[in-house]
Amino acid sequence: MGDVMIDFIGIGAQKAGTTWLYKNLEAMPQFSLPSMKEIHYFDRAVNYPSPDMLREPKAMKKIFSPYWAQKFGRKMYAAAKKSDWDEMKWLANSWFSNIDDDWYLSIFENLEGIKGEITPSYSMLERHDIEKMYAVAPQAKLILMLRNPVDRAWSHYRFHKGKGQYAMQHEEIMAFMKNDAQRRRSDFRTVIENYYSVYPANQILIGFYDAIKHQPKALLTEIVQFLGGDPKEIEAYCTLERKINVSKAVACPVEVRKELVDMYSDAVRDLAENFDGYFSYWQCVNENIEGTIDPKNLSPVLKLNTAPSFK
To answer: Across the chain, where does the E strand assignment appear?
Structure first.
């Protein structure tokens, strides 16, 4: 599989517009993505709070393990109930295969055009796992979508609760906000430092969730051009303002938002001081000084020439 080339990898962050990006890239004929949006190949280790279907690499161990057989059966049944043939095919492929680099590259073998995948949980990868990614796909361009961590955290909570009853007790909500899975997905400084320490800066593009609302065409145009595509297809094939993967609309309680702002104030201020742009806009929003920055005048992406050196 050494001749299989992966052109791009979407590395996160969760609840920051990656499904919007996947759907729009998938709609353009020049791009090819796997039918399953999230592969979770590089974040399958037990130290990541991610789906674990790929954690056992040996097919024979999975087949003869009651634990894995039961897990596979439940997921296959759920996919069959939804008539989700793509997920059923994916589950069968991962179940009967040895999970290794050749298996991962085989996912892209028959794709044409500009090909890649998007797995938001890759934003949590530690440096040694990013090095594994680089060993498999050293030429890949990386797309990192970011969102105000205060809003991202609340959206993550709403997604976590799904269609169930919202527990509005302050203590329970804040317990979720402070857990490892949530905090790691919002630690953008660490994400930036880790990836830029492994991949060349000119292979990484940071996009902003806010721009999906303020200037979606400009955002997608920047991403398509960065990936080597022709943005002329955007007009013909993309639905830029369609909301995708939207959680139930529930307002964040005032006291929760206040604690989240306090939790992330230093991190957002740090990013704003180093990069300005949408990071400064987040700071203004969080500190209730809106109106000083017009987001429509901001660049929808951030391109760095060198690895960042934080102040």
So the answer is: 8-12, 31-32, 114-118, 141-146, 204-208, 301-302
